[in-house]
Queue: 3 jobs
Job 1
Amino acid sequence: MTGSKYLKFLNPLALFNTKRTRDIFKVNPTITPERQEADTIVANIFDYTATEIHEFTYNAIEPCTRFNNNGHISWINIDGIRKKEVESICTHFGIHYLIIEDILSVGQRPKMDELNPVLYCLMNMLYFNEQTGTVETEQISILLGRDYVISFQEDASRDVFDPIREKLKIAESKLRLSGADYLCYAMIDMIVDNYYLVMDKIGDRIEMLEERIIRSSNKRSLAEINALRKELIVLKRNVSPVRDIVNGFVRTDSDLLDERTRKYFKDIYDHIVQANDLVESHRDMMINLHDLYVSNVNLKLNEVMKVMTIVTCLLAPATVIGGIFGMNFDVIPYAHESNGFYIATSLMILVPIIMVFIFRKRGWF
């Protein structure tokens, strides 16, 4: 690390990472944000029945159109979002323009819409960055149609759907035997399950921070408390709306959702309610950690004040004796005695010693 990198620590405000605050609260729904279009697009397609499955990968949107109403269940996963390609495939599948706007949006609140011929939900996949200690989000749009699911992701390098891909390759598995609605359920369930992994990481950080605060409370501890509280805001903002999304799937009357699959969404609803409770518990823990930090700082201050008070009290007799014998009077008892200095010095030492024994006996220190 170069010397210039240490300069930020000379400013105490740099410990509190105000840029992260701006990133979290920068969303303004009255302003249309500009999305930076992806350099490349990768379309991964799983086209399957109970007995066979075919996997395709394309770097263009046009080949995906042939998987509409082909008699199979199709999962079209598109990594990388560009306006032209999104409008092209959505137009082919008859997707409403309002949904296209939501897919192209940035920083959208998680939501669920029912616009024929699809059920649409927008969520955020969450990841925990171990290096920076921050929660990272990736917006994903999922379209459930008749015998197909289309998903749009921003980042081609990561997602949480690898277990689903592995299960799809197993013949006669539950995913292969069920319809597109069950695939949609599995994707949302996997996203929600990954929330718990992120919250576990946050929980570990909170426990380690608690131990450090108990051992030593300093400005860096306060900065870490502040940083974790910001990440919990990100968690709360992304986890809380998912309850309404899942509840929308449970209550919808759409024929795209089978009654048997609706029961699985009720299971996700239980999970997301528990996740909300866990986020609230973490927030309560952060409030308690802040109170613990303040208590430790006050305790340290009290210890310092106690020591200073004791020292002041022990020096008070010497100050009084020295002041008495230093008064400018002609007649002061023992002032002109040959042993006067030794008597005064002895008193200055003896009285504080007696005071120490009295303080110890009373348990003052």
Job 2
Amino acid sequence: MTSNHLLLYRIAELMLEQEQHILPVDLLFDDDQIGDFVKSIQIDSPYQQMLFEGVLTESVRDEKLFVSFTVEGYFHYVLGEVIFNKSQEFGAEALKQIVEENKLNGAKEGVEQCLIKDIKKQKYERLFSLIDSGGEMNKYCSVPFSYALVYANNNQSQIGKTENKVSIEYLVDSLLDNPTENDFRVLFNSILNLERTQKNNCLLNLFNILTKIEKYENIDFLKIIIKGLPYLEQELKSEILNRLQNEVDKFSDHSDYPEIIFELGTKWLLSLDFKMAVGMFEKSKLIFESKEGNFDDKIEKIYSNLGAAFWYQGDIKLTKYYFELSFEKCIQIYGYHHPYTSGALQNLALVNVLLDEYEKSIEIFNKALDISLKNEGLNHPNSARIYSNIGSAYLRLGKLEIANEFFQKALTIDLNVLHSFHPNLALDYDDIGDILLEQGDKQDACLHYEKSKTIFIKNYGINYPHVKVLEEKIQKLLES
């Protein structure tokens, strides 16, 4: 252990013992392990170096000097190492005791990091035991379990070649052997973590394993499988979607039933079965309207998706009707300056594009952009999509240079914040291909259309309508 590591480790250890995330420097002076480091005023001493690099921060309170970690995440990491070393000979109860009793700010996150260190050692007993204990502990098991899935996925190629390598299948089987609500909750939240960190290859392998498990008698399992449908190949996706449709009505008395019906409608919409999608949305709406309580937020989403379903069918009148209802609900629920209201405005602007009212659509898109920039900032996928939509309107007006500026802005943002096969990038490449085609650069346009097509197929399959459009564009270019 280097001097710097020893210093940080010992400070974290003292914080755990004192149950304080900020310590008086006088306490460190008297410590046998790091006292000499803290007393030294030499610029290259470990303590002074950590202050200089911003890892530690000193502050004065009541005329006393205190020290704390500057970066919270780094503190959690070091604390996790301390907890791991102190507790590895003990079972899950030792970690549970820290979560429930230790008053140190960050102790719970330290336990999270400790469990990750368990996983790196191929030790899963404490993690599964804490999952089974339920309650608050489940909150601190989801990140470690998602880490375990990624770790197993990365080692997948070595399964059978290297001893003690754990597979995703083993983790899923272990978790869902006689499953409880706790197991499904941790699995669902782990999936959310994997989506947030864009671990798409891991999610693909995970959901292909989950579809082979027969747990359809459990509504929590149904929710997980519905969430995983976009990661499946088209043939398997259709098979599973039909299976879910046949299974769902057995849960008609469950409070989550209308939400699940809505989610199934969304998946039918993405699968281009608009009749099934509209049926599910309307069924979900009727159930929400019949229930006690305020479900305006759910109704707004249903209106928005109904508008999308009729958009795909080319019914402008019904598209406009439902998008306007969605916007009115957003104003009622969230107010004007909310990201959801920005989304509803974008839908209204798209209706104007369909009506060839491009100047009006640009005006509405700019209102949506103003809301998005204030709420989410420039480097956000929502801002990128609005730039793309404004570019499309300018393209239809024949203003190529302005359109290209907006398309390039969208692409730059998406490349910074999304994974390389995100469908938004497919839209960006298609847009820029259109500009290149208008400028007479057929070869480069074709390359952009091919990029777009590859991404759409990877996400939605060969029968996705946009794939057909791109194939026609490419074919015309090859024939010209």
Job 3
Amino acid sequence: MEDSRIEEIKRTLKKHNQEHLLNFYENLNEEKKEMLLNQIENIDFDLMDDLYKETKKQNFLKKDDKIEPIEYLDKYKLNDMYKYYENIGKKAIEEGKLAVVTMAGGQGTRLGHNGPKGTYDIGLDSHKSLFELLCDSIKEKNKKYNITIPWFIMTSKENNEATIQFFEKNKFFGYEKNKNIFFFMQGELPMIDTEGKILINEDGLIKLAANGHGGIYEALVKNGMTEKMKQNGIEWVFIGGVDNCLVKMVDPVLMGIAIDKKVTAAGKSVVKANPKEKVGVFCKKNGRPNVIEYTEISEEMAEQVDDNGQLLYGESHILCNLFSVSAIERMGRDPLPYHSAFKKATYIDVKGNKVVPETPNAYKFEAFLFDAFGELDDMAILRVKREEEFAPVKNATGVDSPETARELYKNFYKL
């Protein structure tokens, strides 16, 4: 049986020119041998071949795509409608129809932090981690609406164990772990070199990388989380990133707008700081909601203004979105297109030597959450204030660093 399994695997590898994956098979212990064979059997090699071809022509905008500005509401110019939307959202929250999801699959490597990004301390006097800051914000709303909102946390294979241990050590920050806090893992894809060869990791196994925030829908469905939500009467799900310490996951105004406008999704935006800011912007693509990445928008388009001198494409997508559970299920049925990122990746070469590159040498493939927006007929966009809702921690220094996030957090909470 074992021999026929290996023979079958060898045939597959030969067909896709990936025979090197078994180069060090004999050096592995029994447990790792089994892990490697499982990894190989789970790889969609046809997909990897296609993704490698795509690295040669990465461009998600086609010539005949029709791009237009998207309509939005400004949270602070709603006037009488503010209370109206807020009341609709408040009622749904109090009825237990909202769950929140935090995407926390990343490591804090870029911040010089050894561990899951959510465990990072941004340097406040309280020394609270990003996870605890987010938890504080949800608990404040739980108290306000007299409810416990279920909190779903997406980890990755790389950081799942460390994340759960961190929560256990901190007694789940006062959340009932079995009833209101749920962990699930996002998918992974192999990394490949510039020749299309799948990389081998230092442990002799295949080098995998998390498949980007676009994997969220599929992960929620495959891990049974949407089923769990439906069983608990959840109708709406807010999805945000772990690295925005000012994220407002429980926002009755956003919910009220989505419910009132009968849309299955809503997103928050902040005005672009300037035409060249490296952010994706909301737009309409071929009549449907979309986000166009900063790498894909022309300079001319980025600088276009309306009659009031405001940027036509000025609504930055800040990874703060609300979806109906049914929309998530629909978007989780089929995998999204993958975008490639050229990264530095340590690997083991054909001779068994460890290679630590000084420049990018490998492709990692990620799906973007907003690529699913084209499945939606419409989407409500709510413009909010950057200083109140957007303090990301992405870089060790400079823009979007712990220093800038800390400042925004302290100013907002008057610390």
